[in-house]
Amino acid sequence: MGDLPTCPDCGAPQRPNLLMFDDFGWLSARYDTQRARLRDWLETVRRPVVVELGAGTAIPSARNSSHAVLRHHGGRLVRINPREPQVPTPKDVGVAMGALAALAAIDHALGK
Question: pLDDT tens across 62-82, in order?
């Protein structure tokens, strides 16, 4: 498998930059920039479609973000989750499949 990547500054093992519980090593600068770009972009579009992959109900942060887009920007939701595909309104779409299989099926249906 090879050596794990290390930080060029301190030599410590690198890690994915995602927030976990009680994670005091997470650096938020990149997230903050991405969040600001998303907020700015959402202000320029009408009725965005959120494609949500694998977000469950046990830790609802991703679902909460999707629902916020629906509420504040008049968007619609395509929720892809093999066990919890339920959607908030009849105008949204829930797909009870794994992400790769569902995206491949959507791609095929669109004739890509």
Answer: 999 999 999 999 999 999 999
- CA angle, 38 then 43 then 45, to 5°: 95
> How many folded domains does the chain comprise?
1
> 4-42 pLDDT, tens per residue?
899 899 998 888 777 888 888 788 999 999 999 999 999
CA distance 87 to 80: 10
Sheet holding 76-80, edge to edge: 49-53, 76-80, 93-95
**Considering the entire predicted model, what is its pTM?**
0.81
Structural domain contains residue 60? yes
